[in-house]
Every structure is written in structure tokens, then in C-alpha cells.
Design goal:
The chain is of the alpha+beta class. It contains six helices and eight strands; from the N terminus they run ββααααβββαβαββ. Helix 5 packs across helix 6. The N terminus is likely disordered.
Amino acid sequence: MKPTENLTEPSATRLPDFGRRPRRVNLDQTIAVKGYGKLIIRPIRPADEDEMVRFHEKLSEESIYMRYFEYLGLDRRTSHERLLNICSNTPESYAVVVEQPATTHRPASILAVGRLTKTIDAFVTTFDTLIIDEEKGARLGKVLLNRLIKLAHAFGYKTLTRELLVADHDALNLCRDRGFSLQTLPQVGLVRVSLDL
């Protein structure tokens, strides 16, 4: 009698890994944003270091505090050692920039940065964003968050989450509009936002 094959054996689950190419998504995207024209959303790269210094020079103390929960000086944020890590994607984290391309009148400039980072839960990733201080910045925030949601899903994650300050009304409202659930944390002044992908 010929032995039967076990056709029902489950295949190994493929764990999310930022070191792999994400499924069914182009890494570079061009998008039109009102007030800015055509912008490029692409992975961060080591050659962005000088541009990242100029980006950080445009950020307000309030934006820095909302992102890092403390005030970090420009010298600390733009040290070569720190930017060397930030401008490289690894299997543990993946960052993209929203860039205004160069024209004959101005050089290219980074307008926003977003990052996905692994957690101890294999299928949960956190996200962070940092956006230039402009009246039109909310539009960049929406574009960047939409991109991070798409990338997190493409990399195979099931949940996207982040802790925000209660005072960060713009970020909380944006997350609420995109369907994130909000949970007040025991730590005073913090809210966790989560989205099932």
C-alpha cells in the first residue's frame, strides 16, 4: 500500500521582517499634495544625512517634545553617530521620508520622516512620525500615516501602535480619523493608539 501524503500540514508562518522586501507595494511613491505639488515618499538612505540636518533645523521645540517626550537639542539630534543609525534601514526598523524634489530654483528637501519599529510581539509594530512645522503640515501627516499603515501591512504586521501625549491633539485626531482605537494609559498624560491591519 502506497503511503499517503499529509496534505493538510500547515506551512510555517512567515514572520514580519523589515529586512525583506514588502509584498505588493512599490518602495518609491510619487503623490500630489495640495500646497506642495508632487512629493516623493521613499525609504530613507545614508545619503540623506545632510538633508536630515536641514530638516531638524526647521523643527520647533514643541514638535520635538511631542515626538520624543522631552526636549532634545539640535546638536544631539543631528550628531553624525545618531544620523548614521537613523538614515539606515535594518531588519528591526524601517523609515521613509516625504521629500520635495529638487527644482531649478531649490534643492530637494525632506518635509517629514516616519519609522516602523519591531516590538517583542512578532506581529506588532510601532510607528513614529516627525513633520516640519508649517500650516500645511497636517496634510503631510495624513499622507505619511497612510503610507506607514500600507507598509506595515505589506511587511506582514497585524497591529500598528504608538504612544502619544494627551496634548498631541493633531496626532490623536489624525489617528482617530484613520480608525485607530485610543486607550488612556496609567502613565499620566499618555494615550496608546492601535490599529488592526
